[in-house]
């Protein structure tokens, strides 16, 4: 049997992979929308609601982390192969506010057979709010049928 590359699986199974990732229950719960999706990349956004604020009336750090984590998961699972987070490091730089559209963009920096590394930027329409560096472990299993 011919070995199929990650990119070929991404291209051949694009709709199926994207559909699985768009249906992520926690992302749906928070109102996150996957707006762009590619091999090793993902972009998502959310509109900040009152239930996403902290006691200072700014976006809770956990919401920014969740949005960054969602695009990290989408980008790292974009090949249909199950990838699970190993480590993340988040830097918070500015506050977000009620009603703002917050966008997170994940970009694959390096990938090998077992590990992959990502950079994620989280912004509102004015400035960079946070960055994340993250690594996944790439399992042997696929969450779609790669054939």
CATH class: Alpha Beta
Q: Count the helices. How many? A: 4
Biggest sheet features: 6 strands, antiparallel
Q: What would CATH call the homologous superfamily?
A: Hotdog Thioesterase
Give the distance, in angstroms, between the N- and C-terminal Cα atoms: 10 Å
Low-confidence stretches: none
State the CATH architecture.
Answer: Roll
Strand content: 35-45%
Cα-based radius of gyration, to the nearest Å: 16 Å
Element order, helices and strands?
A: HHHEEHEEEE
Q: How many β-strand stretches?
A: 6
Globular, elongated, flat, extended or rod-shaped: what is the shape? elongated
Structural class category: alpha+beta
Question: What does this molecule look like?
Answer:
The chain has 147 residues and is an alpha+beta fold. The chain has a single domain (6-142), classed as Thiol Ester Dehydrase, Chain A. The chain has four helices and six strands, in the order αααββαββββ. Strands 1-2-4-5-6-3 form a six-stranded antiparallel β-sheet.
Short overview:
With 147 residues, this protein is an alpha+beta fold. It is built from four helices and six strands.
